[in-house]
Write a structure and sequence with these properties.
Elements: H1 7-13, H2 19-22, E1 37-38, H3 73-93, E2 102-106, E3 112-114, H4 115-131, E4 137-140, E5 148-149, E6 152-153, H5 155-164, H6 174-181, H7 195-203, E7 212-220, H8 222-227, E8 236-243, E9 246-258, E10 281-288, E11 292-297, H9 300-305, E12 317-319, E13 337-339, H10 350-359, E14 373-375, H11 380-386, E15 392-395, H12 409-417, E16 421-424, E17 445-448, H13 451-466
Length: about 475
């Protein structure tokens, strides 16, 4: 059962914040036959108290959440505000289980996309574009062309969601919605930046001479999102800033992840509801090159009300990976793997082969021993490893697959600023300056707590490759 060592005192200090819970509404995400339907259910989880998302605490973090001299703080503040607004949307729409429905489509590559993906992308890009006077470049996953088909138009449903979340004044009509979504459609089908975008980068180069590009995955881990919050469905909103092709800011907002850095219970407990887990579930990982990695609460005002520390860093919890010199609490041969729920991330069974090299054995089904395994979707895995909840993450898809940068850019900054490392399978840093896609020569991605853990991981990978 989840550790509750500070929960009671935090609840007492945050009692005034619970008024928004009592102003609950029952939002029924009933099926609409616009396009294909995906599972979702009522926000209240079958009798629990709904979160009143239009009355959630302010997303405006100010400079008190992070150190005043934190690198890139003036860009991080509007980014956090945008992402927290997007979290209102995804929290409203994420299913509790896999047994009800949310509107969306299946894209040509068979991947699902929901109204939550479109809505979150539109809000984040709209806010950032306004914040930076239209001068920054954006690369994002979704395009407005998928909003409309012969089965209907999702635009009005998304606009209705904005209103329910108290965001209707930001994007109020279908044209603005589509323009906002398509701010991120700056690349061609092969992932290269469009010529006009490159020219814009040259025109609006920063005072430091750097070209800036924001990279967004509005719902990273859509399959986890659809799996449902009560069935351990993890997802995140992943945002990265790249300067001259190098990721320098990474933000991962994880609404369904327990906020305790020592919490091993990623699935909902039997007595858990949206009302009683306000302070125990949901967090944001923020990292900036040279400034370290911090874990923040999902919504800023909650944290300000419960702070006991220095006012200059209200709620900021600096995190680090597991000690990686072989002298820490986790021995190298007991490294924990944080891997995807589904097998498509490792179609050839390489991860199990690597684990056998490290642990010395597998279970009776030929899989990683359960005590060394955590399974979840999305870049949430990077956050878990960054705070010491796992030591190894792998991404080893089929040879023909070329990775999109939004699936790993934010995670790279988070893990590196926490003391870990992300490389390709040869141990080289990955080039994020090729456009929306990585170099096709990247055969896989290895992520770890760094140090001896990464050396061991590279060695195990090469050994199992040699045996194939």
């Amino acid at each position: 059962q989840r550790t509750k060592m500070t929960l009671q005192c935090r609840i007492l200090k945050a009692a005034t914040l619970y008024s928004f819970v009592t102003k609950s509404f029952a939002f029924h995400a009933s099926p609409k036959a616009l396009l294909n339907s995906f599972p979702v259910s009522r926000l209240d989880g079958g009798g629990g108290v709904s979160r009143c998302l239009s009355s959630l605490p302010t997303e405006e973090p100010g400079k008190k959440e992070l150190p005043s001299d934190y690198p890139n703080i003036d860009r991080i503040i509007p980014a956090l505000s945008a992402i927290r607004k997007a979290c209102r949307i995804t929290m409203l729409l994420q299913p509790n289980t896999v047994l009800s429905s949310i509107s969306g489509i299946t894209k040509s590559d068979t991947s699902p996309v929901t109204i939550g993906d479109f809505a979150a992308q539109a809000i984040v890009l709209n806010i950032l574009n306004e914040a930076f006077d239209g001068q920054d470049i954006f690369v994002a996953e979704e395009g407005s062309s998928n909003l409309v088909s012969d089965k209907g138009d999702l635009s009005n449903e998304i606009l209705d969601v904005f209103k329910k979340c108290g965001l209707g004044e930001i994007i109020s009509d279908a044209d603005d919605l589509k323009r906002s979504i398509d701010l991120g459609q700056t690349y061609t089908s092969d992932g290269k930046l469009q010529k006009s975008v490159i020219e814009k980068q040259e025109l609006y180069v920063g005072s430091d001479g750097k070209k800036r590009t924001w990279c967004l995955d509005p719902i990273d881990g859509t399959r986890g999102f659809l799996r449902g919050k009560r069935e351990g469905g993890q997802y995140c909103i992943a945002l990265a800033l790249m300067e001259d092709g190098v990721p320098t800011i990474g933000i991962l907002a994880c609404p369904n992840l327990p906020s305790s850095t020592s919490d091993d219970n990623y699935e909902w407990l039997e007595d858990e509801t949206e009302a009683n887990n306000i302070l125990t579930r949901g967090c944001i990982f923020v990292a900036s090159r040279g400034g370290g990695c911090y874990q923040l609460p999902l919504f800023a005002q909650m944290d300000i009300a419960t702070n006991n520390g220095d006012e200059s860093t209200v709620g900021a919890n600096k995190i680090n990976v597991t000690q990686n010199d072989g002298k820490g609490s986790v021995p190298l041969n007991q490294a924990r793997f944080c891997i995807g729920v589904e097998k498509y991330g490792d179609p050839e069974g390489k991860v199990s082969a690597i684990a056998k090299k490290i642990h010395g054995e597998l279970d009776e089904l030929g899989d990683i021993l359960s005590k060394y395994t955590r399974r979840m979707d999305s870049q949430v895995k990077y956050g878990v490893a960054a705070r010491g909840g796992a030591e190894i993450i792998t991404r080893l898809p089929k040879k023909s697959y070329v990775e999109w940068i939004w699936d790993h850019a934010a995670g790279r900054v988070v893990i590196e600023e926490a003391g870990g490392l992300q490389t390709d399978v040869n141990g080289d840093l990955i080039n994020y300056g090729k456009g929306a896609k990585m170099d096709p020569d990247v055969d896989g991605i290895l992520i770890s707590s760094g140090g001896l853990f990464h050396k061991q991981l590279l060695k195990a990978y090469k050994e199992q490759e040699a045996e194939r």
